[in-house]
Each structure stands twice: as C-alpha cells, then as structure tokens.
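User: My advisor, Dr. K., asked me to get a structural model of this assembly before our group meeting. I'm new to this, so sorry if the format is off. These are the inputs:
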Amino acid sequence: MASSTSPLVIFDEFSKLRILDPVQFETSEKLKEECKDFTQRVSNFNEIVEMFLKMMEEKAEQIESEKLKAIGLRNRAEQQMENRKGTQKQLQSLIKERQAELDRLTVQVDSLVKVQHEQEALIDSLSSK
Amino acid sequence: MKLKIHQDKSNKHADIVTSVGWTSNNELYSFGDDQKIFRWSGDGDSLGQVTTTLFDAGQSGVDVYITEMHWFPVPPGKGGQTAAEVFAAGATDGKYYLCTKAGRVEKVVEAHKGALLCLRWNNEGSALITAGEDGHVKIWSRSGMLRSVLVQIGYPIYSLSWSPDNDQVLFTNGRNLIIKSLQPASKPNQWKGHDGIILKVDWNLVNGLILSAGEDRKYKVWDSFGRQLYSSNPHDHPITSISWNPSGDLFAVGSYNSLRVCDKLGWSVAMEKLNSGSIFNISWTPDGTQMACAGGSGAVVFAHVINRRYEWKNHEVTLLDDHTIHVHDAVNGSTENLDFRDRVVKVSLGFGYLVVATSSQCHVYSERNWNTPAIVDLTNNGRVTCIQQCPEYFVLVDTVTGIQIFSYEGRLASSPKYAGLRAECVTPQTISISGDVLAVKDKADEKTIYIFESASGRPLGNGTIKHTADIAEIGLNQCASTVGRQLVLVDKNRNMYITPLVKPDLKKLGTMVETFAWNADTDLLVAMMDYKFVVWYYPNVVFIDEDIAPLTKFEKDGSNFGKNAQIVNFFGTQCTLRRADGALVTVSNITPLPGLLQEHTRKKQWEEAIRLCRYVNIKELWACLAAMAIHGQDLHTAEVAYAAIDEIAKVQYITYVRDIPIAEARAAELALLRRRPSEAENILLSANLVYRAIRMWIGLFNWERALELAIKYKTHVDTVLYFRDKYLKAVGRRETNRKFVQYGQSVQVDWAKIQAKIAMEEESDRQRSTTR
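Assistant: The format is fine. Below is the predicted structure of the whole assembly, which you can bring to the meeting.
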C-alpha cells in the first residue's frame, strides 16, 4: 500500500538518492546494528556455555574418579573387615594350637613338680634317719 | 618342634600346583595347571623349568592337565641310586604318562573314562594302581600293561594307597573308606570314615596306620582294621592333603593357607600359616626331614621340621635346623653348638653318647667331650633309617649297607645280615640291642625275630625266635649276662610275652599292653596295661615260680595317662610317658630296691639280700628274693623268703629238698619246683638216678613215662606196676592202658621185693652222698 502511495525515488536531506524511505532506512540500519550486536552476544553466550560445559565435564570426570576412589576405599574397608575376620580366625587357630601346647607343658610341669616334691620328701626322710 | 617355612616371594607357577614329588637325589618336581613342570633344589631354590613333551602329548586337541604324579620308587635294598628314574603322571584326559626325569614321555596309557584322579606305585615298584572319575580302580604292570580291574563303583575315587605288604589297596568311596585285597573274590572291608567327601588317604609302610582327610574339615588316624585311633576337631577349611613321614612317626596335614605336622597318635606337633592357597599335595623327602607342598595359588612351599628335642639324664639336645645341634647340660649349665656340613638325618641320645647321622657321615659325641666326635663315614649314599643304642654299642640301619653295629669309638663291631631286610621298615620298636645280642623283627614274616651276637654278627642259637602271632614291638633287657638275656615282645593282639634268648620259651606276661620298656640299668620292666601302670620287679619269675609272679608286680592306676600312652624312657627310678594328647608325664619313685636286690643276688650275696628284705620288709621284695634264690639255687634264702610271704607249702618243700643228700637230686627237685619235669628228668638221668626219675613220674601220675623209663633202664618195672595198681584201686577204676595190662601179666609184683629194692636204692643214695 505504501509503495503505491509513496514515491519511488526519494532524496534525503543530504541530497542522496534513496529507494527506501529514510525513516525506514534508518530503522533497517538500526535493525542491522542490533542484529550484529545480537549475533555477537549469541556467539559470546555460546563461548561461555562451551566453557561452562567443558568445566562441567572436567568436574564430572573428577567427580567420577573421586567416586570410584571412594567406592574402592569403601570396598577396601569392607574387605578389611573380612580380612580381619580371616586373620582373627587364623590367629585363633594359632592360639588354640599354642593353648594345646601350653596345656601339654603344664601337665609336664605339674608332673615334674610332683617328682620334685617326691624327691625332696625322699631326701628329707633319708637325711632325718 | 616347629616348622621352618621356605616359600618364594613370587609364584613360579601361574596356576594351581597339583602335584609335587621328590626324586631320590633330593630334587623336587612340581606340576601345575599352567602346563609347566618346575625343578627345585632341596633347599627350595628353583632350578628352572623342565622341558617336556608331556603337555604336547594330547594329540586329540584335548589339553593335558596333570592331576597327580608319583615317582617310581627305589626298589628295596638298592639304596639311593637307580639308573633310570621315571615317574607316572595321571591327567584329566583319563590317560597316564610314564615319563623320564628329563621330561621325555615314554608311554601313554589310556586308563579311565573321564579324568584320572590318583595313582600310586606299590612299595616295590612292581605295580601301578590308578583310579579315576569313572569309579574304576585298575592295576597295571611296571611297563603299563593292564593287569586287572580291581573295583568298579559308581563314585569318583579321589585318593588311594597301597597297604604295607602290597597285598591290599585302600581307596575312597565318597564318605567311606574301602580296603580291598588284590585276591579276586575277596570281600572288601568298607567303613564310613567322614561326614564329608574324603579327599585324601595315606597308608604308612612302617607302622601300618591309615590317614584320611575330608571335606568335613577333619583328619583321622585308623589302624589297618579300620578302627579309629584319632579324630581331629573340625578345622576352618576342608583338609585337602595329608601325608605320612616315611618313618611313620609324623604326618603332615595341609589345608587352606595352613600346614600342620602331627604325631602318629594324632596330636598336633606344630602348625604354620602359609600364603599358598589350599595345599593340594604334600611330599616328604625319603629321609623325612623336609616336605614340599603344592599350593592352590601356584606356590610351592618347603617346610622343615626343626626343634626336635632329645633328653637323656641331664643332657638336652635340640636340633636347631638341619645343620646345627644345640646341646645343653642342665647340671653345669654349659651349652654347645654342633655344626654339620651335611643335613642331619637322624639323632639318638643315650647312655652318655650322642649319635648324629648326617647324609654322609655319622658323628659320635661323648658327653665328656663335645669337641672331637668319632666319625664314621657312611659311604655309598645310604640313608640312615634307625639308630638304636645300648651301653656298649650302637646300631645303625641304613638302606644300602643294612644293619651295622659300632662301638662308641666308631669301630665297626659287626654287620649282621639276614635275607629280606628292609631298612626303611626298621623302627626303634622293631630292633633292640644289648651288650651281647641284637634282635630284629623280620618284615616279611612278622612272626619271626632274628637274633645275632652283637660282637660277631653271627646268629645266636638257631638265629630266630618264632611267635604264633604278628609281632608289634620287641625289647631286650640291658642288664643281665647272655644267660639271663631276655626278650619281651608285644604282638598285634597286644599280648606281652617274655622269653629267654637261650632256649626260647614264650611266657605270657599280660594282655592289652599298650606300651612297655625295660629299665636302662636294671632288669625292671614297666608296661601300660589296660589303664594300669605295671612294674615287674623281677620278670624272670615267670620261669621260676608262676605262683608268686603276681606278688612281684607293682600296679598303679594309670587312668590319668589315658589311652594309647607311650613310654618314652625309663631310667633309674623314673619313667616318662607321653600321653595320647602329647603331654609328657613322669612317674617317679619306682622303687630302686629290686634293682639292688638283683645286684646282690647276681653277686651271690645272699646274706645282704636277706638283710635288705628284712629292713624294707615288703612282700613284693620277698617274693622277688624267693624267685631269685630258687634261680640261684640257694635253699636257705629261698626258705626264708618263702616263709616271709606265707607260702607254707613251698617252705616245706624246700626243707624237704634241703634234706636230699645228692646235689643233682636237689637240682632236679628245684627244676620240679619251676614246673619243668622234663628238665628234672634230664638232670636225674644224667646223674644216673633212674629210680628217682621213675619215682618223680609216679609222683606226677605220669604213669606211661614212668613205665617207659623203667622198661628202658630194665629196673623197677614192678614198682611202677605196684603203684599204678594201688592208684587204680584208690580211685576205683580198672586198668585200661594196654601197656600196663601187657606188663601186668608178664611181670610179677611182689610188695616185699619192691620194698627191699626201694630200701636198697635209698641205701645207695646215702652211700653216694657220703662218698662225695
């Protein structure tokens, strides 16, 4: 509608030939500027997002490894309990073994003490006569 | 005792080690599921891998995994070295492989369907037995030819073992154990052994005891009849291997990460924790000083038994390791360390001497001098299996030279020989030496004992003593001279007998005897008999007067020693026993008086002997004296002693004997008192006292012998007939003996004549005594 009503060629205030209406021209110029600015900002944002993603990934990796580490440690701790049980069992059987030996030696000592008493009694009875 | 463990830090094998075995020159071969064979030195150092074609042998594309290997045994009497050494290895493909030491496969034999699980050469190496998952037991010849299929059962057989005499085979059947004789159509002896599957069995060549180990985490000891002698408490893990020491005094038990060594009575001597996984196989070196274990983690573990202790009076000897011995004198507190270049194989301490046998030499130390031993070189690679001592000599049994008797200066006194000696089967229980005699039990015929003169090595008398049952233990007394030398034996039925070596005559001393020992200094005998501790003050009494034999014994309740106690030693007045749980218990105050009395009577100091008895005044001693006096033919002492123990009949008899004017007749009467009429007859006849001999038989109602003598010497036939007739009338019976009927018809019996003859005989007796 506007094209039909407005003239085809226009001179602006600097006497330059214009096809577009100066006002429109001005707005389009402005739009162009704004678009440029927008793309700039979008790419900026993109960069920032990329950086952020990278950071996130790094962190994730770190977290993952820490997590694994933690699991390992936890497993190890749990294992330790088992190990301890095992060692405890081993030590217990060793104790049993030693106890048996101790019992044997106690019996031997007892019998030898008895022998000693008997010998002393014999010596006494012989020396008193 | 302790175990010294040697294990490489890193495992050579990458997988389970399934089997280990020692060669005769002390190298170990180990077989792993990584399909490798490694060779190890006796000190536990790896000598590298054996290149072998064994694992290429499965051409069918089936991998070969060895389940068990067994070296071909050294034939008896051949000693250490044999030219070609081979082993048999059974594999999971059901075949067994005969391989040389270098690893070359000589023969592959298809044996079983499924895996071959176990195999064993017999003790002589004349046959191989295999068993597998298919439940068959097969016997093969030395060269790998099938002889017979002994058994077919529906259960995999995990382990088997030969009997000591190679006549029977023991094998597992699930929870049961089976003993099967090689004779066809013989009934197998089967019994339940464990509450879980039985994994390993072993049957010892020397002591004939059986071991079994199972998944019920227990191990058990059985005798050859299947009677249980010991059962362990359940352990933490299944017992995966068990193995006898070749000398049969110890056995090793392997389980997950643990190894223990036990006495043959079952009590645990030492235990060690390992880092080896389950131990699947244990192999002892032939000398029994070391063992190797095959670990489930691929480890090969070497274990030494160290800290063996020996005691004698005030000396204490400890084997620190296989090259060092520590000697401690408890009286003056001095200690010595003895070092040896070679491995110490056997040690014996006694009578003031320490005898140490290494693999190449024998060192004899005196308690007075620990610096300069007498050294005997043991040449030709023999292995000493037994050392036995007496005050004058020691005897050394080795696998090549056999039995050798040495003096303590190291001089060879003699080397007795007999056919069929098996040195590895000689134990301190089956050989006994005294100053003049050596006695050895035969292995081939267990009823026989060989006796030799120690000094010359010649057989004594006819050289053997035979018994009616298999003999388990023997022992010689240490004190008396050759005439009084006696042998005590315990047979398999645990009956104890005593016999003099000159003119063997076995007399039973007791039943249910668990163990016995002679005193080292005097002729005292102790035994554990049916939970009683029994001391015989004068064992000879059974040959003299059995009536008073029970009186010369001392019995004491021995229930605190438990079952199966073993006497360790018996010196002076002290006897040390080892209980079945391994504790040493000492019994002291065994009276020294019988020893003193024996000493007096040996020197014929009868007065002193009587005085001693009067002073102590106990019945046992009087009874001993009575027997000793009869033995020494001293009638006065005998009379006093019998009177003291209220044996009136004996006293009267002795007074009667004392009044006999003729010495030979007195001796004969004493022989009668000892219940030896035939000996008495011999004495009388050799002294030409025929009438007395005849009267003796009449007195014993042995009419036939009396008549025989009368006829033989053509005298007093009528006397015999007269007394026979009188006797028959008294008991109211008729003559049925044909001989007497015959002579009764032909000979006239006239009482007056007989009386005259008897009077004449008595007169001649009197004359005889006066003319002397």
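One thing worth pointing out at the meeting: Chain A has two helices and two strands.

User: Perfect, thanks a lot.
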